[in-house]
Write a structure and sequence with these properties.
Distance between the termini: 51 Å
Helix content: over 70%
Radius of gyration: 20 Å
Structural class: mainly alpha
Strand content: under 5%
Number of strands: 0
Order of helices and strands: HHHHHHH
Number of helices: 7
Largest sheet: none
Length: about 160
């Protein structure tokens, strides 16, 4: 059992709020933006626009997830923001919507390794500042391209791999 006085407990709550308020605001803003985009039809409109790349969409799909998570730092936020866009574009192109949504998430994982928010947290107490991004960027791009190629193959050649 932790023995804190009411004053110490209140101080801990206040310190926690000070440390997390910007992160809480950021997450709430991203989720709010995702809802706004979905309910206003903006996601649908963007999905129609992205579908214009036609057969190259699996590659674009992987990079959409990649860039979103690179910028936001969160795969969950990336899925909330662009998951529906992927499904809309997949329907327009007669692609598997589950595969395209999964590609968004998997591409996001490749973007997470170079996300400034994640790198800064990971190297905050080390001498690796400025080194991690430079060493992982090319791997992130290469893996995202390989993911896009794999998804294109799954959609067009290896369709038995896609669950129905």
């Amino acid at each position: 059992m932790v023995k804190l006085s009411a004053r110490e407990f209140g101080a801990a709550i206040a310190d926690t709020w000070v440390q997390t308020r910007i992160a809480i605001l950021t997450v709430a803003t991203i989720v709010g933006l995702a809802y706004l985009m979905n309910y206003s039809g903006l996601t649908y409109t963007l999905g129609l626009g992205v579908a214009s790349v036609g057969p190259f969409f699996p590659l674009v799909s992987a990079f959409l997830g990649w860039v979103t998570v690179f910028l936001l730092g969160s795969d969950t936020s990336g899925n909330a923001l662009f998951g529906n866009l992927q499904v809309v574009a997949a329907h327009q192109l007669n692609l598997n919507p589950v595969l395209m949504a999964a590609t968004n998430s998997s591409g996001g994982v490749m973007g997470k390794m170079i996300s400034p928010q994640n790198i800064s947290t990971g190297v905050a107490t080390t001498e690796l500042k400025g080194v991690v991004f430079a060493r992982t960027f090319k791997h992130s791009i290469l893996l995202t391209m390989l993911l896009g190629i794999l998804v294109w193959l799954q959609q067009n050649v290896l369709q038995a791999m896609i669950p129905h």
